[in-house]
Amino acid sequence: MNPLMKKFVAVALTCVMVAPVAGAQTAAKKRSAKAAAPAGAAMTSEDLRALRDAIAAQQQQINDLKQELLRRDEAARAAMQQLRDTQSAAAEASNKASAASETAAGQATTVESLKADLENVKLNQQNAAISTQEDQKRVGALESLAGRFRFSGDIRVRSESFLQSYNGCDGNCPDRHRARFRARFGIDGKLGEDFIGGLYFASGAVVNGAPDFKDPVSTNETLTSFFERKTFGIDRAFITYAPAKYKWLQLTGGKFAANWAKTVLTFDNDLNPEGFTQKLSFDMKNKIFRNVTLQGMQLLFNEVSGGTDSNAVGGSFSARMQLGSRITFTPSYTILNWNGVDAIAQAANPVTLPQPNTPAVGTPLPQPTTQPVRIINANSLTNATAIVGVGASQRRVFVSRFMYSDFIGNLTVKTWSAKYPLNFIGEYEKNLRSKVADQNTMYYIETSVGQQRNKYDLQLGYSYANIDQDAVISQFNESDMRAPTNLVQNRFFVNWLLRNNITISGTWWIGKTKDPTLQNAALASQRPAGQPAATVFERNPYLNRLQFDIIYKF
Fold first, then answer.
1. Is 107 part of a structural domain of the chain?
2. Are 257 and 235 in contact (CB under 8 A)?
3. Which of 82, 224, 402, 405 reaches 20 to 30 Å from 7, CA-CA?
4. What is the pLDDT of residue 208?
């Protein structure tokens, strides 16, 4: 029996037994009272209160049992509902399990297929991982290769004017204005532990509407020729052996920038010679002598199949001296012997047959019957020349031979400001093999203040050149002067570094032919005022050449 029911029965039995007893007790008390009444005894209020309390307690226990029975009934009904819900869920689960068992067989095949696909995916991932590793190796090798090379170049845009006038030119000496650009791009870097290589490209020129690379001293392109595409050719291609173990040694071969001390009066800055050089350079800890450099050079400019080749062979010596705390002096001496130079004269101004009678050596040459086709389309030919040979073997030759004996001194002085050092360059060059009397010497001076290193750096300068007719070969030196030789040339220049890679510069060239009576002198042919059109006189006015440049470097 349920404990609660047992308790309820016990309480009920107690009540049943208590009631008769209580009734008997009450009756006995009444009888006793009646018997004792006469004696004056009666039931007290305390007895009644105790009886009422006992009855109240019993009634409370009965109420508590009723409430407990109600709670038990609710719990029993909830348990029955939960049981029914559980049985329903179990039935539904059984149905689902049956359905799942029915589809399990079909899924087994799918699972096997998925396993096979998974294996394929794993194989593909392995192959992809291997391929990625190979790609990473290749990319790493490429990055390593790229890290050993350096890209550089520049673009220059120029506005240029030619002003040459004199009293009485009668409008026959118009000014000339043109716009030009120069573009250069290069790659150089370490080819190995001890080798350095370089490959550079530069814009060229257009002659008669066709690309032309016959000018070795200029990479300018004039903005003309009806918007045609411009030329771009190899400007330098070289390899240098510079062993890490012997840092004092440097061997270079190919087409390269001149790597010995020079000025533009012997080699234009845009001219890159070809051949070989050998340099020995020693840094020193002497208080005065800081470096000594010796160099040999073999420059090849005309190879002939079955004939005599043309070259220039020589050497140079230079030193860097520290004279106190403010003065640095760099002297240099170069001797360079030119062999087979007549090939230059013939290439610059070929003899075109039929040719009139050959004039005497050193006299003006008659014009050929047809315009010659020049192989070198560079500076004008201002050296003394002659025509030798007879008949079809006639050719143009230089009157002089050429051996440069060139001394250069470069002096730098530190001033009150590191931004404005003073720079002095002096050059004295003599052609030791000249055959024209008193026409074998060149001297040059240049002075400037300032530098071109940091943003907003400013440099101002002036230079003066005096070049005899046969002091140097006219085809290879500075191309912006009034003439390459037989010349007096002044130059004023200003350079401003607007940004670290942008330079704004202005140059004013003022030049004049030194001796207008010499053969091949650069002169201006004009008709004097009041003279017939057929009357032409050669004048020698100063030529003013103004250049304004913007240069971007990268």
1. no
2. no
3. 82
4. 64
